[in-house]
Protein backbone atom coordinates (compact mmCIF):
# COMPACT_ATOMS: atom_id res chain seq x y z
CA UNK A 1 0.00 0.00 0.00
CA UNK A 2 1.45 3.34 -1.06
CA UNK A 3 0.74 6.09 1.44
CA UNK A 4 1.84 9.60 0.53
CA UNK A 5 1.01 11.33 3.77
CA UNK A 6 -0.75 11.20 7.09
CA UNK A 7 -2.64 14.20 8.41
CA UNK A 8 -2.56 13.53 12.11
CA UNK A 9 -5.75 15.33 12.98
CA UNK A 10 -8.59 16.99 11.15
CA UNK A 11 -12.00 18.29 12.10
CA UNK A 12 -13.20 18.98 8.56
CA UNK A 13 -12.91 15.63 6.78
CA UNK A 14 -15.71 13.92 8.69
CA UNK A 15 -18.23 16.31 10.23
CA UNK A 16 -18.22 16.33 14.05
CA UNK A 17 -15.38 13.83 14.27
CA UNK A 18 -11.73 14.33 15.06
CA UNK A 19 -9.99 12.09 12.54
CA UNK A 20 -6.63 11.16 11.09
CA UNK A 21 -6.47 11.27 7.29
CA UNK A 22 -4.41 8.94 5.13
CA UNK A 23 -3.66 10.04 1.55
CA UNK A 24 -2.84 7.22 -0.85
CA UNK A 25 -0.79 7.51 -4.04
CA UNK A 26 -2.12 6.81 -7.51
CA UNK A 27 -5.44 7.03 -9.32
CA UNK A 28 -6.98 5.30 -12.32
CA UNK A 29 -8.65 8.57 -13.42
CA UNK A 30 -7.12 11.82 -14.68
CA UNK A 31 -9.76 14.42 -13.89
CA UNK A 32 -8.54 17.79 -15.14
CA UNK A 33 -10.14 19.53 -12.15
CA UNK A 34 -8.35 17.30 -9.60
CA UNK A 35 -6.80 19.26 -6.75
CA UNK A 36 -4.42 16.47 -5.79
CA UNK A 37 -2.17 16.08 -8.86
CA UNK A 38 0.75 15.19 -6.60
CA UNK A 39 -1.20 12.10 -5.53
CA UNK A 40 -2.30 11.20 -9.05
CA UNK A 41 0.63 11.70 -11.43
CA UNK A 42 3.43 9.15 -10.99
CA UNK A 43 6.00 11.72 -12.17
CA UNK A 44 5.12 13.73 -9.06
CA UNK A 45 4.37 11.14 -6.41
CA UNK A 46 7.39 9.02 -7.30
CA UNK A 47 9.54 11.92 -6.12
CA UNK A 48 8.28 11.57 -2.57
CA UNK A 49 8.83 8.69 -0.16
CA UNK A 50 6.07 6.30 0.82
CA UNK A 51 5.01 6.19 4.44
CA UNK A 52 5.05 2.67 5.79
CA UNK A 53 1.51 1.58 6.77
CA UNK A 54 2.93 0.16 10.01
CA UNK A 55 4.09 3.68 10.92
CA UNK A 56 0.54 4.96 10.43
CA UNK A 57 -0.84 2.08 12.49
CA UNK A 58 1.60 2.88 15.28
CA UNK A 59 0.31 6.45 15.35
CA UNK A 60 -3.29 5.21 15.31
CA UNK A 61 -2.50 2.86 18.19
CA UNK A 62 -1.07 5.72 20.24
CA UNK A 63 -4.08 7.98 19.54
CA UNK A 64 -6.86 5.41 19.62
CA UNK A 65 -8.47 6.88 22.72
CA UNK A 66 -8.25 10.43 21.39
CA UNK A 67 -9.26 10.22 17.72
CA UNK A 68 -12.81 9.38 16.63
CA UNK A 69 -12.03 7.99 13.22
CA UNK A 70 -9.85 7.47 10.20
CA UNK A 71 -10.41 8.84 6.70
CA UNK A 72 -8.74 7.14 3.74
CA UNK A 73 -8.57 9.24 0.61
CA UNK A 74 -6.28 9.83 -2.33
CA UNK A 75 -5.72 9.47 -5.19
CA UNK A 76 -8.03 6.48 -5.40
CA UNK A 77 -7.66 4.26 -2.32
CA UNK A 78 -9.34 1.21 -3.88
CA UNK A 79 -6.49 0.66 -6.33
CA UNK A 80 -4.18 0.01 -3.38
CA UNK A 81 -3.04 -3.53 -2.77
CA UNK A 82 -3.21 -4.07 0.96
CA UNK A 83 -6.07 -1.65 1.59
CA UNK A 84 -8.28 -4.35 3.13
CA UNK A 85 -5.52 -5.49 5.46
CA UNK A 86 -4.75 -1.92 6.49
CA UNK A 87 -8.39 -1.13 7.24
CA UNK A 88 -8.72 -4.37 9.15
CA UNK A 89 -5.79 -3.40 11.37
CA UNK A 90 -7.31 0.06 11.95
CA UNK A 91 -10.65 -1.54 12.79
CA UNK A 92 -8.98 -3.78 15.37
CA UNK A 93 -7.90 -0.55 17.09
CA UNK A 94 -11.55 0.49 17.27
CA UNK A 95 -11.58 3.15 14.56
CA UNK A 96 -14.61 4.26 12.58
CA UNK A 97 -13.53 4.49 8.95
CA UNK A 98 -14.56 6.75 6.10
CA UNK A 99 -13.51 5.84 2.57
CA UNK A 100 -13.42 8.23 -0.39
CA UNK A 101 -13.73 6.60 -3.79
CA UNK A 102 -14.43 7.34 -7.43
CA UNK A 103 -16.65 4.26 -7.61
CA UNK A 104 -14.58 2.34 -10.14
CA UNK A 105 -13.91 -0.73 -7.99
CA UNK A 106 -17.25 -2.22 -6.93
CA UNK A 107 -15.81 -5.63 -6.04
CA UNK A 108 -13.49 -4.25 -3.41
CA UNK A 109 -16.13 -1.80 -2.19
CA UNK A 110 -18.52 -4.70 -1.67
CA UNK A 111 -15.87 -6.74 0.11
CA UNK A 112 -14.99 -3.88 2.46
CA UNK A 113 -18.62 -3.22 3.34
CA UNK A 114 -19.43 -6.91 3.80
CA UNK A 115 -16.40 -7.26 6.07
CA UNK A 116 -17.59 -4.24 8.09
CA UNK A 117 -14.34 -2.42 7.44
CA UNK A 118 -15.91 0.89 6.40
CA UNK A 119 -18.55 2.90 8.24
CA UNK A 120 -19.19 5.56 5.64
CA UNK A 121 -18.29 6.08 1.99
CA UNK A 122 -18.08 9.29 -0.01
CA UNK A 123 -18.35 8.50 -3.70
CA UNK A 124 -17.86 10.84 -6.64
CA UNK A 125 -20.51 11.11 -9.30
CA UNK A 126 -18.44 12.79 -11.96
CA UNK A 127 -21.35 13.51 -14.28
CA UNK A 128 -24.36 11.74 -15.79
CA UNK A 129 -23.80 8.00 -16.01
CA UNK A 130 -22.89 8.09 -19.67
CA UNK A 131 -19.63 6.64 -21.02
CA UNK A 132 -18.70 9.55 -23.26
CA UNK A 133 -19.48 12.16 -20.58
CA UNK A 134 -17.48 10.24 -17.97
CA UNK A 135 -14.60 9.91 -20.45
CA UNK A 136 -14.50 13.68 -20.93
CA UNK A 137 -14.18 14.34 -17.19
CA UNK A 138 -11.96 11.44 -16.16
CA UNK A 139 -9.75 11.21 -19.27
CA UNK A 140 -10.10 7.48 -19.21
CA UNK A 141 -11.99 5.24 -21.58
CA UNK A 142 -12.09 2.10 -19.47
CA UNK A 143 -14.76 0.04 -21.25
CA UNK A 144 -16.70 -1.07 -18.16
CA UNK A 145 -16.41 2.16 -16.23
CA UNK A 146 -20.08 3.14 -16.23
CA UNK A 147 -21.12 -0.39 -15.32
CA UNK A 148 -18.65 -0.30 -12.43
CA UNK A 149 -19.88 3.07 -11.17
CA UNK A 150 -23.50 1.87 -11.38
CA UNK A 151 -22.59 -1.30 -9.51
CA UNK A 152 -20.86 0.73 -6.78
CA UNK A 153 -23.94 2.90 -6.47
CA UNK A 154 -26.12 -0.17 -6.19
CA UNK A 155 -23.86 -1.59 -3.48
CA UNK A 156 -24.08 1.60 -1.44
CA UNK A 157 -27.83 1.88 -1.89
CA UNK A 158 -28.37 -1.69 -0.72
CA UNK A 159 -25.89 -1.47 2.13
CA UNK A 160 -26.79 -0.42 5.64
CA UNK A 161 -23.90 2.02 5.90
CA UNK A 162 -24.06 5.79 5.59
CA UNK A 163 -22.89 7.16 2.24
CA UNK A 164 -22.59 10.42 0.43
CA UNK A 165 -22.59 11.12 -3.31
CA UNK A 166 -20.95 14.27 -4.61
CA UNK A 167 -20.34 16.07 -7.87
CA UNK A 168 -17.82 18.83 -8.47
CA UNK A 169 -19.55 21.30 -10.77
CA UNK A 170 -17.41 22.27 -13.74
CA UNK A 171 -18.74 25.38 -15.51
CA UNK A 172 -17.74 24.09 -18.96
CA UNK A 173 -19.36 20.71 -18.53
CA UNK A 174 -22.19 20.75 -16.03
CA UNK A 175 -24.73 23.01 -17.69
CA UNK A 176 -28.16 23.57 -16.23
CA UNK A 177 -29.72 20.56 -17.91
CA UNK A 178 -26.94 18.24 -16.66
CA UNK A 179 -27.33 19.61 -13.12
CA UNK A 180 -31.11 19.23 -13.30
CA UNK A 181 -30.72 15.63 -14.48
CA UNK A 182 -28.21 14.84 -11.72
CA UNK A 183 -30.52 16.29 -9.10
CA UNK A 184 -33.38 14.25 -10.50
CA UNK A 185 -31.27 11.08 -10.25
CA UNK A 186 -29.66 11.65 -6.86
CA UNK A 187 -31.54 14.48 -5.15
CA UNK A 188 -33.44 12.10 -2.87
CA UNK A 189 -30.16 10.73 -1.51
CA UNK A 190 -27.36 12.27 0.50
CA UNK A 191 -26.08 14.15 -2.54
CA UNK A 192 -24.14 17.38 -2.79
CA UNK A 193 -22.80 19.63 -5.50
CA UNK A 194 -19.32 20.93 -4.81
CA UNK A 195 -17.84 24.14 -6.11
CA UNK A 196 -14.92 23.88 -8.52
CA UNK A 197 -11.87 25.90 -7.49
CA UNK A 198 -9.76 26.66 -10.54
CA UNK A 199 -6.38 26.68 -8.83
CA UNK A 200 -3.58 24.12 -8.64
CA UNK A 201 -5.45 21.52 -10.66
CA UNK A 202 -4.11 18.53 -12.50
CA UNK A 203 -5.23 20.20 -15.73
CA UNK A 204 -2.85 23.10 -14.99
CA UNK A 205 0.19 20.84 -15.18
CA UNK A 206 -0.83 18.02 -17.48
CA UNK A 207 -2.76 18.12 -20.74
CA UNK A 208 -4.51 14.94 -19.64
CA UNK A 209 -4.90 13.61 -23.14
CA UNK A 210 -3.26 10.29 -22.32
CA UNK A 211 -4.64 7.22 -20.62
CA UNK A 212 -3.76 6.97 -16.90
CA UNK A 213 -1.26 4.16 -17.37
CA UNK A 214 0.74 6.39 -19.75
CA UNK A 215 0.54 9.65 -17.83
S1 LIG B 1 -10.45 13.94 -8.74
FE1 LIG B 1 -10.23 12.35 -10.32
S2 LIG B 1 -7.99 12.21 -10.70
FE2 LIG B 1 -8.27 13.29 -8.73
S3 LIG B 1 -8.15 11.68 -7.18
FE3 LIG B 1 -10.34 11.95 -7.67
S4 LIG B 1 -10.77 10.45 -9.27
FE4 LIG B 1 -8.52 10.66 -9.15
Structural features:
alpha/beta; TIM Barrel; seven-stranded mixed β-sheet; globular; binds iron/sulfur cluster
Describe what you observe in this structure.
With 215 residues, the protein is an alpha/beta fold. Helices cover 34% and strands 20% of the residues. The chain has helices at 37-40, 42-45, 53-62, 83-92, 106-114, 131-138, 145-158, 176-186, 202-205; strands at residues 3-10, 19-24, 69-73, 96-101, 120-124, 162-169, 191-195. Strands 1-2-3-4-5-6-7 form a seven-stranded mixed β-sheet, with helices on one face. Helix 8 (176-186) links the parallel strand 6 and strand 7 (191-195). Helix 5 runs parallel beside helix 7. Iron/sulfur cluster binds next to loops.
SSE sequence, one letter per element: EEHHHEHEHEHHEHEH
Say which CATH homologous superfamily is assigned: Aldolase class I
The unreliable regions are none
Give the tally of structural domains.
1
> In order across it, which strands form the biggest sheet?
1-2-3-4-5-6-7
- What quaternary form is this? single chain
Secondary structure layout plus pairing:
Elements: E1 3-10, E2 19-24, H1 37-40, H2 42-45, H3 53-62, E3 69-73, H4 83-92, E4 96-101, H5 106-114, E5 120-124, H6 131-138, H7 145-158, E6 162-169, H8 176-186, E7 191-195, H9 202-205
Parallel strand pairs: 2-3, 3-4, 4-5, 5-6, 6-7
Antiparallel strand pairs: 1-2
Bound molecules: iron/sulfur cluster.
Residues 27, 29-31, 34, 36, 40, 74-76, 102 line the site of iron/sulfur cluster.
Describe the structure concisely for a colleague:
With 215 residues, the protein is of the alpha/beta class.
Amino acid sequence: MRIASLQKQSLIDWPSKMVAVVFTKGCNFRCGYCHNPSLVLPALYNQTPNIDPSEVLRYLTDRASWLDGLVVTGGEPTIQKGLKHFLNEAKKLGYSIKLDTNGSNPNLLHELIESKLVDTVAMDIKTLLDASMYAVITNTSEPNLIASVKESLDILRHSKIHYQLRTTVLPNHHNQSVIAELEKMFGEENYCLQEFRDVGTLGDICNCSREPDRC
